[in-house]
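Researcher: Please generate the 3D structure of the following complex. Treat every line as part of one assembly.
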Amino acid sequence: GAVVSQHPSRVICKSGTSVKIECRSLDFQATTMFWYRQFPKQSLMLMATSNEGSKATYEQGVEKDKFLINHASLTLSTLTVTSAHPEDSSFYICSARDQQEHSGHGYTFGSGTRLTVV
Amino acid sequence: SQQGEEDPQALSIQEGENATMNCSYKTSINNLQWYRQNSGRGLVHLILIRSNEREKHSGRLRVTLDTSKKSSSLLITASRAADTASYFCARYNTDKLIFGTGTRLQVFP
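Model: Done. Output below.
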């Protein structure tokens, strides 16, 4: 079945530094990937939709200059948390949709990245 | 809020009992999906029900959908300790999956 690899699984960084998270679709092509953020014991909040070869679409309230998204190929999207602060500490999860699937069924999720900013 | 609401927020049951989780949403949908998340992990797709379907089964899972009430329910029958996890509904519309608030299920042996 479809597999999405997300890396790293855990990262600790100092305040003010930037962190890059990668999301790869391993056995399918994904023109669209999604980035979610999840606080402890809460739901997933959609941050942005990553489109291959074009700019990402951000949800209301998400700072695009803070959370930089690049989707340079059909199998890779990256999320960079710039100038990280402790309040950015969270669980970030990506999702990729198989471009052959048009019914809304073909979403596969990465295993998530636990970001801790100290 | 973009999210749907789920209830209960938390549910504790004994093995062998059934667990029912409910999901309500506000906007129209193409389909509604249910996912499972073990603590600190990614999501696993459980079942999808289309807007023109009313009920769907998969193993011990039964999902219902009432589009007139904008609600769905997930029933897990004969629960097992391994079913302990968080369960989320997610509505699909215009190429996005928007998740509900989730139900944390604890199944005691």
